[in-house]
Amino acid sequence: MASGLDRATKLTCKNVWKVYGPQADSFFTDGNGQVDDPDRIVAQVRESGHIGAACDVSFDVHEGEIFIIMGLSGSGKSTIVRCLSRLVEPTAGEVILDGENLLKVSKEKLIDIRRHKMGMVFQNFGLLPHLSVLENVAFPLQVQGIDRAERVRRAMEMIELVGLNGRETSYPRQLSGGQQQRVGIARSLAVEPELWFLDEPFSALDPLIRRQMQDEFLRLQKMLHKTIVFITHDFLEALRLADRIAIMKDGRVVQIGTPAEVVMKPADAYVEEFTQDVPRVKVITAGDIMSSAGRPLEGAKAVSTQTTLEQLMPRFGEGLDAIAVTNESGTVVGHVTPQAVLSALASAHEEGSAL
Ligand SMILES: Nc1ncnc2c1ncn2[C@@H]1O[C@H](COP(=O)(O)OP(=O)(O)O)[C@@H](O)[C@H]1O
Ligand SMILES: [Mg+2]
Is the pLDDT score of 216 beyond 90? Predict the structure, then answer.
């Protein structure tokens, strides 16, 4: 799960603030958003009747990573993801894409970056009702000025990718919610974006369909390796999909970590509340608890870094005192012991979780 950790930084969100209200700018002497005492500014914003929709938000998104922003409704998730593409203009801060501060580029350049480098998917699908599936998916290519034959070819490829072949001539109203969101996904991928922003893409769907779409999303990412910022208010969805999770509360980031880090070491009571009912054996993986030191083990009985404790535990029944752990390319990167499994579970017990 922590596969995003060792990769290069693609996008940096640095001390970003979005304050709504008549004197929003007055809290910042400098546009870079770095202030001596963020807590004090947050208090001043609130006391003066302004809204701090995003306050001092900082994180890096690594190349090829699924970075999830999770928080309750109103915590500032949509504000921050919109700040990343400047659909919402931050009050202060920096957004750095491939080393360039997006908040400093011209409007023309920004539009160009959005059209060519960014794909966006929204909760309400955002399809054009009078256009067919094919026309909807091809639309961003038309905006790019690509000729018709090429547009159709690429749109058909994306429609196939999301499993909607045969529905090209349907209109949005003739499709189910899940199918409409597949169109939304196909359209956002048509321009082959480097950055993929998804704002609660599955929140409007029924639980069963949501689960299918999550699997579908992971399947696509395995092929496409996009750099992804994915918003959700659903903690279990975040755990299933994330390489890393940022948890937001009242406009601020309260914790950033891998699913296992967040579950094993919640930063505060707010985060802990989300983790209460999470089955930890399904979240903590061999990669989270392995030791890289010590003797090399032959790979025959190896498990992958992604193997959950639930899958791992029965293996020790075979009388093994250590099991090799391999990475995506099959190289042995460490080993796990029964003691490591037990202490991971014990720490969970201390925190009073229901396994
Ligand atoms: N245009 C706006 N004017 C004033 N307040 C806003 C505006 N947009 C969002 N907000 C406020 O900012 C906070 C964060 O909103 P939002 O980013 O939409 O949260 P989330 O996506 O996590 O539900 C909320 O309190 C919301 O009411
Ligand atoms: Mg939102």
Answer: yes
